[in-house]
Amino acid sequence: MLLWVWIAVVVLAAVVLGALVHGLLGAAARLRREVATLEQEVRPLLTEAQATAARAAEVQRPS
């Protein structure tokens, strides 16, 4: 009888750990998608800021 209890405990622990891993992997996938989307949205702003900084450096450079 005690063997069945231990088997049930091990199976239950495996199910809980499996659910936890599944949730963490899903969250990691969502985070990667969000980061990729944010990078696509910020890329034009970064390019514009770099161009502005280059123009400002040219203007401030003494001739």
Account of the protein in words:
This protein is an all-alpha fold. 94% of the residues lie in helices and 0% in strands. The chain contains 1 helix and no strands. The protein has one helix spanning 2-60. The longest helix is centred in the middle third of the chain and has 59 residues, at 2-60. The model has no long low-confidence stretch (mean pLDDT 95).
Which key terms come to mind for this protein?
mainly alpha; 63 residues; single chain; rod-shaped
SSE inventory with pairings:
Layout lengths: L1 H59 L3
Question: How would you summarize this macromolecular structure in one to three sentences?
Answer:
With 63 residues, this protein is mainly α.
**SSE class:** mainly alpha
* Ends distance: 92 Å
Beta fraction? under 5%
Q: Return residue spans where pLDDT drops below 50 for at least 5 consecutive residues.
A: none
The whole-angstrom Rg is 27 Å
Q: What helical percentage do the residues reach?
A: over 70%
Query: How does the major sheet shape up?
Result: none
Count helical runs: 1
| Global shape | rod-shaped
The chain-level mean pLDDT equals 95
- Tally the beta strands: 0
Query: What is the chain-wise order of helices and strands?
Result: H
